[in-house]
Amino acid sequence: MQERLPEPAARHLWGGYLAAERNAEAVRWELEQLDGGLLGRLSPPVALKGAAYLLAGLPNAAGRVCHDIDLLFPADEVGRAESLLFFEGWQASPHDAHDQRYYRQWMHELPPLVHRRRGATLDLHHNLLPETFAVRVEPRRVLDAAAPLAAPWRLRVPAPEHLALHAAVHLFAETEWQRGLRDLYDIHALVEHFQAARGDRFWEELLDEAEALGVAWLVEPALACGRTLLGTRVPAAAAERLERHGPPRWRRGPMRALFRHGLNTRASRTPRRDALARAALLLRGHWLKMPPTLLARHLLYKAFRAPQGARAGGGETPTHRHG
Amino acid sequence: MRIGQLSRSELAGRLARGGLSLATGPVTTRIRTSIPGVAAHLAALYADFPLGEADGIADFSCQLRPPRGVRRYYRPQVLFLADGRSVFKPLAYHQAGPMLEWGMNWCIASQLRDRLIFHAAALERGGRALLLAAPPGSGKSTLCAALACRGWRLLTDEAALVELGAGRVSVAGTARPVSLKNASIEAVQRLAPEAALSAPCRDTLKGTVAHMRPPPESVRRAQEPAAPAWLVFPRFVPGAPTRLTERSRPEAFMGLAANAFNYAALGRRAFHRTADLVERVACYDFRYSRLEEAVQVFDELATRREPSAVPGAGEPGYHGRPHGPGVDGAAAGGAGERAARHPVAPGR
After folding, report:
1. Which UniProt keywords apply (chain B) (predicted)?
2. Strand arrangement of the beta sheet that strand B243-246 belongs to
């Protein structure tokens, strides 16, 4: 490359690299503590998302910052996992009765655990998608297909097709799209990596599994966005098969525009349309997550009954940290 | 070109069109706003600062604007947005100047990761840097303003920047205005009647706030780092006699690490760099109540020839890198409230 990166830009990239490197080190350390601790009394959990990419040494782990650790357990063990982890300093973050119920009855994960001394956060999942989601995913398929890691790890990681599916399903069922571009890059890097490693067989397994789990309609827009924004290569046969799971032709254009604007960063030229798209995606995400009556109940509670602190969200006061 | 060379309407015009790039030493900030209070704040305090290149790279992109909603018609407020995202709860509209300062502080403290950032004031004299590390309310800024008025070159009153990569340890700062609050405004005015202070802004979260315009010489040399020589932990104690006492190096290390903004995010690199720094400086605790006496103490310190306290200090990596123990996830928890933000905690 002839031209050098301007110094200020290079500095920020270097800073991002340092922070990501440290984050990976800290995540690995936390996982080692979890793996060697009381969780040994349960069947080996499956690391999801960032933790899985890191442990499996996948290309999207480099430079990626994870803000929490996600572990998947069989549904009948997740409660015990929470109790055991309590003795190692992991405590449920304070939630009121509504939020407790929201998580425990309707969601696919328990309320996030926070380590008492270190402040690290841990999500215990028993499924990939909420219990009340538009389609019910069978978590057994993911648990049974998970691959072991080299010793001394007890932890397992999802099979390649499940890694890619989870990344796609997670983003395209999401309410918050703040880290959308990173999540789209995950999908891109994963499918390109597994395509290179396993060839077209990977695509067949991916789509078979997507159809078996009933989530192909979420994979279709994920790969379409990947193709447009990141140049994700999808073999013709797979593209044709995905096509059948896409939205009807009249809805395709608006849906594509919605996702494209949702994926824009805050430094975009279309801030108003992006904000509109973010609002629409928030509604869409909630709509998919809960049946309408439950959604109405949840939103009404959040609007009128939730304690002040829970609602205000975001934004510290300027003096909170800086003198 | 300097901010002071722009007419008020040119300044306001550039701010409104999003073209004002403010170069403060090692950091450049692009500011967009149509709030007149911000233009007035910049005109009063930043006249000596150069403009960055209009189409050059800015480290931070900021905007100040009132929140949308009907409230703007009867009780206007101001928001600070970094990269289009509001980072604080809104403040009253007349506090736009302080909001800009706090917002720029936030950008430095939370967005720079390529260097170690200490919550400390820093000044230079005779090529040697003095670091004043302390949490808010310790009288750090007051002391910093007083020294800047009495011949010390101001590096920063808020965030001392230490490069990670380079072999020699050096401290840099943005030379931005010094933030003074409540009684310290008058204390600085008494000590240095010639100091240019902005009009006090009342009823902020910190009470009454005023900013001191940095000396032109400090602004002119803002790109120039300095080698650290003294690390002082100041504390203002009403009525207390002026007292400078030595502080042990391990205690100084812990005190400095606890005052770093990004210690946990940089892990072992932060540990080594903090150790490098602490080994090169003389460390003190300082209690004071009378500003005039305090300034004298530091003048004496600057004229004294400081004997190097540790043999071998001055060579990078003296403390035994790379064999020294790394800082792991658990150890990061020990380093004070600011530094303790775990790398695996929910982000914004």
Report:
1. Kinase, Transferase
2. B153-156, B120-125, B128-133, B227-236, B282-288, B243-246
State the total domains in chain B: 2
Of A27, A119, A319, the CB nearest to B340: A119
For the question of an ipTM over 0.85, the answer is no
Q: Are strands B178-181 and B77-82 parallel, antiparallel or unpaired?
A: unpaired
Specify burial of residue A131 (Cβ count, 10 A radius: 0-12, 13-18, 19+): middle
Q: Which phi and psi (to 5°) does residue A48 adopt?
A: -115, 165
The domain defined by A13-158 folds into Beta Polymerase; domain 2 (3.30.460)
Say what the pLDDT of residue A248 is.
87
Q: Residue A22 pLDDT more than 60? A: yes
Contact B166/A at CB under 8 A: no
> Between β-strands B115-118 and B128-133, what pairing exists: parallel, antiparallel or unpaired?
unpaired
Please state which of the ranges A35-49, A56-70, A251-265, A302-316 shows the lowest mean pLDDT: A302-316
Indicate yes or no: CB of A318 within 8 angstroms of CB of B340: no
Question: What residues pair up with B115 in beta bridges, in sequence order?
Answer: B163
CB of A88 within 8 Å of any CB in chain B?
no
Residues B20 and B107 in one domain: yes
DSSP type of residue A102: I
Which residues in A lie closer than 8 A to residue B85 (C-beta atoms)? 266
**Residue A104's pLDDT is what?**
72
Interface residue of A30, A35, A316, A321 to substitute, partner B, most B CBs within 10 Å = A321
**Rounded Cα distance, A80 and A78, in Å:** 5
Q: Are residues B147 and B265 in the same domain?
A: yes
Q: Is pLDDT of A295 > 80?
A: no
Token readout for A268 is 């975009």
Q: Say yes or no for a CB contact (<8 Å) between A8 and B59.
A: yes
Place of tokens 């009342």: B202
Question: Is residue B211 domain-resident?
Answer: yes
